[in-house]
Amino acid sequence: MVGSMRGGYFPQYPHHDNLPDPEIRTFITNFYHATDQPGSDELWISYFTPDAHVVIGGDVGHGEQEIRELRQRMWTTVRERRHTVKKAFPAIFQDPADVRGDECELMLFGEVNLETTDGQSLVVPWAGHAVVKKEVDAVTKEWKFTQYQVWMQNS
Question: What InterPro entries does this protein's entry cite (predicted)?
Fold first, then answer.
C-alpha cells in the first residue's frame, strides 16, 4: 500500500531531538529579550548571519540591511512588546554520521503581549521556524539564525 502512494505524504523526520549544544537555550532566551527592547536594533540584528532570511508575518528581510529595515518597521505601530516562548522543538535532519553539532532547526511557539502606539493591548499567539548555525570567526564561536520565520495568529 505504501509503495503505491505518491505526493508529499512522507515527511522527513529528525534523527534525534536533542540540542547539539545547550548554548542554543541561552541564545534563544537572549534573542527574545533583545526582540522586546526597542533600542536594541543592532544587538537584535547581530543574532542573524549576514545573509540570513527573515520573515515575520508578511514582512521580509534578506541580508543585514533588509533585516535592519524590517526591525525598524517592527516598532512603527508598537510601543511595547513582551514575548513568552512556550516551547521549542529542536531537530537535526542530517544523517547522524554527518552531524557536527554546528546546525539545528527549531520550531517554536508562544505568544506576544503588545501595546500599540494608539494604546491598544493585544495578546498574539505565534509559531516560528528557525535554522541556527554556529558561526566561527577568529575570536568567537556563536549561534546565529540563518533562517527565521514567524507566523502570527490574527484574532
Answer: NTF2-like_dom_sf (IPR032710)
Spatial contact of 150 and 127, defined as CB atoms under 8 Å apart: yes
Every domain of the chain and the residues it spans: 39-97+104-152
- Give the model confidence (pLDDT) of 103-127 as tens digits: 889 999 999 999 999 999 999 999 9
CATH architecture of 39-97+104-152: Roll (3.10)
Residues 6+ apart with CB under 8 A from 139: none
User: What's the start-to-end Cα distance of the chain, in Å?
Assistant: 42
Question: What pTM does this model have?
Answer: 0.85
Other residues' Cβ atoms within 10 Å of the Cβ of residue 25: 12
Structure letter (DSSP) for residue 98: G
